[in-house]
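worker-03 picked up job from queue 'complexes'. Input manifest follows; two sequence lines, order preserved.
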Amino acid sequence: VDLVLFYGFAGLAIGASLVVIGQRNVMYSVLSLIASFVGLAGLYVLLDSPFAAVTQIIVYAGAIMVLFLFVVMLLNAPQEEPAVRRTLPLSIGGRPLRIGAIFGIVFLAQIVWALSRVGESRFAADPEVVDRVSSVRQIGVELFTTHAFAFEVTSVLILVAMVGAVALAKRNL
Amino acid sequence: MPTLNHFLVLSAVLFVIGTAGVFLRRNLLAILLSIEIMLNAVNLTFVAVGRQMGTVEGQIIMFFVMTVAAAEAAVGLAIVIALFRHRETLNPDAFTSLKW
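worker-03 finished. Artifact:
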C-alpha cells in the first residue's frame, strides 16, 4: 500500500513540476507548483515526518506561493513571449540547449546507476526509531539547544530579506 | 515499502526538472519557480536521509532551507518588480545592460 501511495505522490509531484516548466502562463505554473508541493507533503508523511509535511503545506504552499501569486497578478504580464530559440527544432536550434539536455540525461543515468550499485537500503521500521523521527518535541528540543545559534541567525536573515525587499521594490526611498 | 533509493531517485528527477526550467524558461517568475522546485528536491533528500539515519536532523535542515527559500523568494520577487518597472517585460534576455 505504501508503495502505491509513494508512486501516487511521486507522480503528482513530477507531473505538476513538468507542468510548471511546460506552461506558458505563469499563473498556471504557480498553481501547479502548489499541487507539486502537496505531493511532496504526502511523501513527507510517508517518511514519518509530519512536522515537515505540515510546514511544507503552511509555509510553502501557503505563504511563499501566495507571495508569487501576488506578484504575478501585480505585474499582469501572464503571456511569455515565445523565444526564438525555442521555435527551432531541438536538433538544429540552440547548441547549449542540446548539450544541457545531454548532461542532464547523463547526470540522471549516473545517479540511477550509483543507487543501483549501492543496493536497496530499507528504512528502519522498529517503532522506537519511528517515534523519535516523527516527534515534533524532539525537533523542538534539537532546534533550540544544538541549533540555537543557527536559529537565531535565521532571524537576522529574515530581517535582512525584509529590509532588502522593501528597499528594492520601493519606487523612491 | 518504498526504500531510500526511491526517494533519492525521485529527488534527482525533481532537481533535474527544476534545472531544466531555469535554462528553458524565458520568464523571470518561472525561473524563480524552478528554483523553488530545486530547493524542494533537496529538502526531500534531507528528510529521506534523516529518516534513514533515525534522527530529526534532516527535518531541522529542511526547516532552515525553507527559511532561506522564503527570504530568497521575497528578495527575488522584489528584484523582479524593480526590473519590470524599468523595462516593462519579464524576458531575461532584455536585461543585458550589465553585459560588457
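worker-03 released lock.
Chain B touches chain A through 71 residues (CB under 8 Å).
Chain B has three helices and no strands.
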